[in-house]
TrEMBL record:
<dbReference type="InterPro" id="IPR013785">
    <property type="entry name" value="Aldolase_TIM"/>
</dbReference>
<keyword id="KW-0479">Metal-binding</keyword>
<dbReference type="GO" id="GO:0046951">
    <property type="term" value="P:ketone body biosynthetic process"/>
</dbReference>
<dbReference type="GO" id="GO:0046872">
    <property type="term" value="F:metal ion binding"/>
</dbReference>
<feature type="domain" description="Pyruvate carboxyltransferase">
    <location>
        <begin position="8"/>
        <end position="275"/>
    </location>
</feature>
<protein>
    <submittedName>
        <fullName>Hydroxymethylglutaryl-CoA lyase</fullName>
    </submittedName>
</protein>
<comment type="similarity">
    <text>Belongs to the HMG-CoA lyase family.</text>
</comment>
<comment type="similarity">
    <text>Belongs to the alpha-IPM synthase/homocitrate synthase family.</text>
</comment>
<dbReference type="GO" id="GO:0004419">
    <property type="term" value="F:hydroxymethylglutaryl-CoA lyase activity"/>
</dbReference>
<dbReference type="Pfam" id="PF00682">
    <property type="entry name" value="HMGL-like"/>
</dbReference>
<dbReference type="InterPro" id="IPR002034">
    <property type="entry name" value="AIPM/Hcit_synth_CS"/>
</dbReference>
<keyword id="KW-0808">Transferase</keyword>
<keyword id="KW-0456">Lyase</keyword>
<dbReference type="InterPro" id="IPR000891">
    <property type="entry name" value="PYR_CT"/>
</dbReference>
<dbReference type="InterPro" id="IPR043594">
    <property type="entry name" value="HMGL"/>
</dbReference>
<dbReference type="GO" id="GO:0046912">
    <property type="term" value="F:acyltransferase activity, acyl groups converted into alkyl on transfer"/>
</dbReference>
<dbReference type="GO" id="GO:0006552">
    <property type="term" value="P:L-leucine catabolic process"/>
</dbReference>
Length: 313
């Protein structure tokens, strides 16, 4: 990699993807404390919940209350996930201002996650888009299983490009490609990111990476080489998809910050505050965390907050 980017934007997904696979349901007061802790550590973008059926994902049943209590300010983006019109109306009622539409690239995962094949799931999103845009909600989108599906195998980049075009037509500001089960390699990242960028060169791209096979950091490095500047991660590397067999934890926010700072890439994150919050998270969950740095009792040596990240709104 010849030149490092000056800065990246990290969206911490602890309060959504991180908690949705936990056996315990954290009370609202603990979620609020974690959210404020992440913001105080310098994260300017959080994913804080999903407007899904609370019976299917009870860990996120209080998303409405969490959004209403946190209310986005000028300095932070607070994202929630929406899959259909009902979820869109719940998001609006709670006061959400930043929503991610979510659809799977593969039929197998779409059936497990949304209950219908990919194209039908996308059609379900269209009324939600109309409702959200009518209320001036800012839209992003995530394509799940963009690289590998636990049911259908490798995902054809042409399928991802087709979905990306249709989502771009919905007026999204950013498109995130998700390695839902953590099975992608740098080759997968290069192949699919290049295909989407060639088709939609003006659409900003982000990556949502899991670390099931220990490849997340390598995939970040490849993405940086390709010009990607937005990454999802979860403090402590916890998380996974309850509808994707074999999916392990997310790329750890602490590990991602560590990688970036060693490379001289700015994140705006205070390492010591993040380390202290990670210990609070470990105590709340009652088990060891999955990030590499969670095994280290103190902040990484000689690292610092480089500079504040860009305003991506």
């Amino acid at each position: 990699m010849s030149t490092a980017p000056e800065q990246v934007v990290i969206t911490d997904v602890l309060l959504r993807d991180g908690l949705q696979n936990e056996p315990a349901v954290l009370p609202l007061v603990d979620k609020l404390r974690l959210a404020y802790g992440l913001l105080e550590a310098g994260l300017s973008s959080l994913e804080i919940g999903s407007f899904v059926n609370p019976r299917k994902v009870p860990q996120l049943a209080d998303t409405d209350r969490l959004v209403a209590r946190l209310r986005p300010g000028e300095s932070a983006l607070l994202h929630t996930l929406v899959f259909n019109e009902r979820g869109a109306r719940r998001a609006i009622g709670a006061g959400a201002r930043d929503v991610r539409l979510t659809v799977s690239a593969s039929d197998g995962h779409s059936r497990a996650n949304a209950g219908v094949p990919r194209d039908e799931a996308l059609e379900r999103l269209l009324p939600a888009v109309d409702v959200l845009r009518a209320h001036r909600v800012r839209l992003e989108a995530t394509i799940a299983t963009a690289f590998v599906c636990p049911f259908d195998g490798e995902t054809d980049p042409r399928t991802v490009v087709e979905l990306a075009r249709r989502l771009a037509g919905c007026g999204i500001r950013v498109l995130h490609l998700a390695d839902t089960i953590g099975a992608a390699s740098p080759w997968h990242i290069r192949r699919t990111v290049t295909a989407v960028r060639d088709a939609l060169p003006e659409l900003p791209l982000g990556l949502h990476l899991h670390n099931t096979y220990g490849m997340a950091s390598a995939n970040v490095w490849e993405a940086l080489r390709l010009g990607v500047r937005r990454f999802d991660a979860a403090l402590g590397g916890i998380g996974g998809c309850p509808f994707a067999p074999g999916a392990a934890g997310n790329l750890g926010t602490d590990d991602l910050v560590n990688l970036c700072h060693h490379a001289g890439i700015a994140t705006g994150v205070d390492v010591r505050r993040l380390t202290a919050l990670r210990e609070e998270l470990r105590v709340l969950l009652g088990h060891r965390l999955d990030s590499a740095l969670s095994a280290v009792p103190t902040a990484p040596v000689a690292l610092r907050t480089v500079v504040a990240p860009a305003d991506v709104r």
